[in-house]
């Protein structure tokens, strides 16, 4: 049995977990979903889910890890043999996410390269992004590059270095995001966009919006895929679990909010309030921001720094994804680190290639209007993660009982302020809600009705 190393301090734990949590999900995914699903409505639903649902699930996952000292597969199994499958299911999620995550990481490197070589003006062109992803095999090269960088770091295990780097990078990212959003808000027509972003309209609330917000919550906070269980297994008993969860949540949600503030009002300004521009989806960050930069003084330099920071945020998340997958294979097959890394990298290259080419050479593959990348995203976020989350709720609520988790949370100072909320959420609200949402998404997937 390997000795588990621990995070040295609570801050260390919170930062490491935030490094995994804060990534493309916050800067790339959140803004395009919020823009698409009604702005303020999406934001409000997301915030409500984060402080109730997200809080309960993250607390449960970290506590499970800390209590058992094991990562997902082992943690569930060690508490109840029948629930080992849940750990296995959770482990499949990062295997699906990692490849397409790296595809987008590749797009980010491409934009960084374009900006640093003085191409910022060209990248603001209307069809620049679609020409890039839809053209040739070029995206595949950037995807390989991103994957290779991640693999090298995971192989050498220079996590310490990365942790140090992200401690500097993350604050700079925040400052830069604030500057860019303030600038964006001064553009003509941006105020209308700001209103769209923060004002909810109850008529926009639909099962689809809630499902999208929930999938985003899991994705952004690295939940329902065993990652927080693993992180919890490295956490010391004398670090306060409840306040750690609150801090990670605040950090993660804060960055997502800022990213939305940076992108959504600017989309409004540049599209003259055209709602269809808001539904642009995955390309939003790559289409709109270059336009903002192009209209800004020193836009080329600011854009260069921006894409470098996004790259770092993406890299720290990709490392945590790959590290998780590598350790799954190592535990299962007792492989050495090198072999496991190589295997995972090759597997991810094979799995990711169709996502990378799905807008160009493979654009004929589509399902319900979704490209390969969107399908991967949908299957992991809207199908598998809700199932794992539901399983976790049932497991904690009715098998090991919420008290097991509460006791673990109380290890530090005997307190668990949100104990009642936690127990009601995990036993009743979350599972009922998840079943309803899952059922409606399956029903609409089968074409029974549309949501
Ligand atoms: N949470 C990360 C993000 O927001 C994505 C991620 C998911 C990272 C799962 C690790 C594990 O970008």
Automatic annotation (TrEMBL):
<dbReference type="InterPro" id="IPR047218">
    <property type="entry name" value="YocR/YhdH-like"/>
</dbReference>
<dbReference type="InterPro" id="IPR000175">
    <property type="entry name" value="Na/ntran_symport"/>
</dbReference>
<dbReference type="GO" id="GO:0015293">
    <property type="term" value="F:symporter activity"/>
</dbReference>
<keyword id="KW-0472">Membrane</keyword>
<feature type="transmembrane region" description="Helical">
    <location>
        <begin position="140"/>
        <end position="158"/>
    </location>
</feature>
<keyword id="KW-0813">Transport</keyword>
<comment type="similarity">
    <text>Belongs to the sodium:neurotransmitter symporter (SNF) (TC 2.A.22) family.</text>
</comment>
<dbReference type="Pfam" id="PF00209">
    <property type="entry name" value="SNF"/>
</dbReference>
<keyword id="KW-0812">Transmembrane</keyword>
<feature type="transmembrane region" description="Helical">
    <location>
        <begin position="43"/>
        <end position="64"/>
    </location>
</feature>
<feature type="transmembrane region" description="Helical">
    <location>
        <begin position="255"/>
        <end position="273"/>
    </location>
</feature>
<feature type="transmembrane region" description="Helical">
    <location>
        <begin position="210"/>
        <end position="234"/>
    </location>
</feature>
<feature type="transmembrane region" description="Helical">
    <location>
        <begin position="421"/>
        <end position="449"/>
    </location>
</feature>
<dbReference type="GO" id="GO:0016020">
    <property type="term" value="C:membrane"/>
</dbReference>
<feature type="transmembrane region" description="Helical">
    <location>
        <begin position="293"/>
        <end position="319"/>
    </location>
</feature>
<feature type="transmembrane region" description="Helical">
    <location>
        <begin position="85"/>
        <end position="109"/>
    </location>
</feature>
<dbReference type="InterPro" id="IPR037272">
    <property type="entry name" value="SNS_sf"/>
</dbReference>
<feature type="transmembrane region" description="Helical">
    <location>
        <begin position="379"/>
        <end position="400"/>
    </location>
</feature>
<feature type="transmembrane region" description="Helical">
    <location>
        <begin position="340"/>
        <end position="359"/>
    </location>
</feature>
<keyword id="KW-0769">Symport</keyword>
<protein>
    <recommendedName>
        <fullName>Transporter</fullName>
    </recommendedName>
</protein>
<feature type="transmembrane region" description="Helical">
    <location>
        <begin position="170"/>
        <end position="198"/>
    </location>
</feature>
<feature type="transmembrane region" description="Helical">
    <location>
        <begin position="12"/>
        <end position="31"/>
    </location>
</feature>
<keyword id="KW-1133">Transmembrane helix</keyword>
């Amino acid at each position: 049995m390997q000795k588990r190393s621990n995070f040295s301090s609570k801050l260390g734990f919170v930062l490491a977990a935030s490094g995994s949590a804060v990534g493309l999900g916050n800067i790339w995914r959140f803004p395009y979903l919020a823009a698409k699903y009604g702005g303020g409505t999406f934001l409000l639903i997301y915030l409500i889910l984060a402080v109730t649902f997200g809080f309960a699930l993250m607390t449960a996952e970290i506590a499970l890890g800390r209590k058992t000292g094991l990562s997902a597969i082992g943690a569930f199994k060690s508490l109840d043999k029948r629930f080992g499958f849940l750990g296995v299911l959770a482990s499949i999620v990062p295997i699906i996410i990692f490849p397409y995550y790296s595809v987008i990481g590749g797009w980010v490197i491409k934009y960084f390269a374009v900006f640093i070589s003085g191409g910022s003006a060209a990248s603001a062109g209307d069809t620049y992004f679609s020409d890039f992803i839809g053209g040739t095999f070029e995206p595949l090269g950037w995807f390989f590059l991103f994957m290779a960088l991640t693999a090298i770091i995971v192989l050498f295990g220079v996590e310490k270095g990365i942790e140090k780097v992200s401690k500097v990078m993350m604050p700079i990212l925040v400052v830069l995001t604030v500057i860019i959003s303030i600038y964006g808000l001064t553009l003509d027509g941006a105020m209308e966009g700001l209103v769209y972003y923060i004002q909810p309209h109850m008529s926009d609330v639909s099962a689809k919006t809630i499902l999208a917000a929930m999938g985003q919550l899991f994705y952004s906070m690295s939940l329902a895929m065993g990652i927080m269980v693993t992180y919890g297994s490295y956490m010391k008993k004398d670090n306060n679990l409840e306040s750690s969860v609150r801090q990670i949540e605040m950090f993660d949600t804060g960055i997502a909010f800022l990213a939305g503030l940076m992108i959504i009002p600017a989309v409004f300004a540049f599209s003259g309030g055209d709602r269809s521009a808001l539904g642009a989806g995955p390309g939003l960050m790559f289409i709109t921001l270059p336009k903002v930069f192009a209209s800004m003084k020193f836009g080329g330099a600011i854009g260069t720094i921006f894409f470098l920071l996004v790259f770092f945020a993406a890299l720290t998340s990709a490392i945590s994804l790959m590290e998780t997958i590598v350790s799954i294979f190592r535990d299962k097959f007792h492989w050495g680190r090198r072999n496991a890394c190589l295997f995972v990298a090759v597997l991810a290259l094979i799995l990711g290639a169709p996502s990378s080419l799905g807008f160009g050479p493979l654009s004929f593959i589509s399902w319900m209007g979704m490209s390969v990348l969107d399908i991967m995203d949908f299957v992991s976020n809207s199908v598998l993660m809700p199932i794992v989350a539901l399983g976790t709720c049932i497991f904690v609520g009715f098998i090991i009982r919420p008290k097991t988790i509460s006791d673990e949370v109380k290890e530090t100072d005997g307190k668990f302020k949100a104990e009642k909320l936690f127990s009601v959420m995990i036993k009743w609200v979350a599972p009922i809600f998840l079943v309803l949402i899952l059922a409606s998404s399956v029903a609409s997937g089968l074409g029974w009705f549309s949501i």
